[in-house]
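User: Hey, quick favor. My workstation is busy. Could you predict this chain's structure for me?
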Amino acid sequence: MSLAALHRAGMLSLTVPRRFGGQGRGLADAVQLLGSVGGACASTGLVLAMQLNRHAALAREGRWPDAVHARVAGDAVTHGALMNALRAEPDLGSPTRGGLPATVLHPQRDGAWRLSGRKTYVTGAPGLTWMEVWARTAEEHPRLGYALVRADTPGVRVVESWNQLGMRATGSHDVVFEDVPLPAEHAVDLRAPEEWVTADPVQAVWNAVGLGALYSGIARAARNWIARFLQERRPTSLGAPLATLPRMQEKLGEIQSLLLVNDRLIASAAAETDAQIPPPVTDSLLLKTVLTENAVRAVELAAALAGNHAYARAHPLERHLRDVLCARIHVPTADAAHVAAGREAIVPFAA
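Assistant: No problem, here it is.
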């Protein structure tokens, strides 16, 4: 229902190029939308984040056959069709840690392909129309890249494996590909492995501040709930709202400071990126970590102020707490971001 409403408002095609009927908006507009949607329904926000990110990347990179790009983009504009990139696998984990995918594209004599493999943690799996599947080719010298699969193609199967603490409504299940037939042009971006080594700074910042905006939206919703709770809660022993206590005001101010830092960082990074001055990749890795950890800390502070009420399923704060903790599982994880930054900091002082 929420995604249908976003489609009616034209939001599912926010980053689709104008030449395909979309709005062609940049990162600043995308993060503003993600913050608003994330505060209302975090799971919807995460599905939307993947949609906006992928369409922006397709427009920026221009590597797909134009007719294929037009079809996928037109589907988003006309039908609100969802897409996502499927990268993680049960054994491989995230490809950002290295390693070749077990998902394989088998070339056919007529130039077509057959795809087999299994992907995990596929955000929005039940509602996707298009899947960009990270795979390797079964060739003498394997290539790596994406195969485009329509979700209703024979051989595609969603396995309902998602049963996590938070973000439950994302339906981030496994998807299995069993000898799925694909036309030649749906091997949309295959390259030699070494061509994938260099990270794209624009993609890195879209990921960082997109996730940062989404989880900041959750934290802002938690802030609003606890501020209202403190004003309405009047313990008989106090005879006044909890909001009158300096200790409560101090902690609420601490939440405000975390959200202020996030808002400023997100706005600055988005504006620079839209001006074609994206931050270096390592900076974006750190941005993702700082933004999401600030969001987690803000919700944890709100939960501490609410006490037992924060853990009651009758209150939205319980959901906000579960959802915001999922910020830590997105790549880059904090350890990877810190290692990359640490290595970079050592270089000028290396012997």
